[in-house]
Amino acid sequence: MKFRVEREVLAEALGAAARVASTRNNAMPALSGVKLEVIGDQLTLSCTDNDLSVQFVLPVGGQADGVVVASAKLLSDIVRAGADGKVTFESSGEEVHISSGRAQTTVATFAASDFPHIVLASAPPVTLSAPLLSEALRQVVRAASSDMQRLPLTGVLMSAEPEGLRLVATDSYRLAVRDLPGTNVLGHGQKVVIPSRALGELQRLLNQGDEVTLCLAEDRATFAVGNATLSTSLLQVEFPNYRQLIQPSYPNTLTVAREALLEAVRRCRIFARETTPVRLEMTATALKLSVITQDIGNSEEEIDCSLEGTEMIVGFNPDYLAAGIEAVTGDEITIQTTDPQRPAVLRGVGAEDYLYLVMPQRLTV
Question: N or C: which end of the chain has fewer CB within 10 A?
């Protein structure tokens, strides 16, 4: 195998692929590798951990067809650190030689036969807007859990609703729900749970094109955008009943400038520790934020707001609160509450297709 390609193009693809390669499976070293296959002037670059896989198809100057598998992280680091311009890959025996500028590097390879076959979903394709899906994933994936001991919470629910497609994620401390009206990719009443890790990687790829093609089978989903194809197994779990957390209406609604609130929470967060809440004192004309951390210090701030309903003081985890404010769109945000012990809902003013629910935190002082 031998080919030449622009270093920057290859570095971007290798970087994305290396994030998917396994770092844990010592029994199958090839899973930590990237497969480089050249046919003519086309390079297919693949990585997988058996559950999640990604492939890139790149135009190259092919000089000899062939296949090699080598450490994905190592190749990514080498190419990223190389000189600008063309980089050349050439395999010889159980090694691959990399030339970049005046630098020459040799890397040991794995047996290509040990690299797993990449499985794609076999289902009719559906086309979606890539920017629309990217924004929805940005808003929702952040609320999923990374705790593999709570497997159902590590996924994102995609469900068919009467109005279109709904995406939902929760880690039991917050909940994100995004509706895509008029988007139909599932059958009536159908729902699937896609690993949030896979959707996080997909979000990184969605800037490569205006459209993304989704193939959704019973146990697998495949997304194709630009020169990239991502495929993931689905989670065969029962997603929690999130609907019971959302009330049809809330008696109290506070409206405040989104950017001002986000900056205030970020400043208060400087004094917060793992269990330290940020206090929100909601009054008719002002929202007072404060953090009191024993033996460290405190922070207080006040911003303008309007309140319809009862004045109250509520405590929140500042990281979860900031993540919700970041996810909401628009110049103004509403915080809807029932009482200080029940979840609050954040929405952008005029943006009813997204909500972020956050559990309150008990205040001790």
Answer: C
Q: Kindly report which listed range (58-67, 70-79, 183-192, 275-284) carries the lowest average pLDDT score.
A: 183-192
**Rounded Cα gap, residues 16 and 19, in angstroms:** 6
Q: Nearest-CA neighbor of 307 among 272, 342, 334, 278? A: 334
Identify the pLDDT of residue 296. 77
Q: How far is the C-alpha of 138 from the C-alpha of 142, rounded, in Å?
A: 7
| CATH code for the domain defined by 2-114 | 3.10.150.10
* Domain 246-358 in this protein, CATH class: alpha beta
Helix (H) or strand (E) holding 50: none
**Which element (helix H / strand E) includes 135?**
helix 130-140
Contact 145, 171 (CB under 8 A): yes
Is the CB of residue 23 less than 8 Å from the CB of residue 32? yes
Compute the average pLDDT of residues 37-51.
95
Quick one: average pLDDT of 45-60? 95
Which amino acid makes up residue 311?
E
Q: Are 246 and 345 in contact (CB under 8 A)?
A: yes
pLDDT of amino acid 28: 81
The 10 Å CB-count burial string (b at 16+, else e) for 71-97 is bbbbbbebbeebeeebbbbbbeeeebe
In the DSSP assignment, the letter for residue 293 is: E
Residues with Cβ within 8 Å of residue 149, at least 6 apart in sequence? none
Q: What is the pTM of this model?
A: 0.91
d(CA 325, CA 96): 48
DSSP type of residue 27: T
Domain with CATH 3.10.150.10 in the chain: 2-114, 125-244, 246-358
Average confidence (pLDDT) over 33-46: 97
Question: What is the rounded (10 degree) CA torsion for 30, 36, 38, 42?
Answer: 140
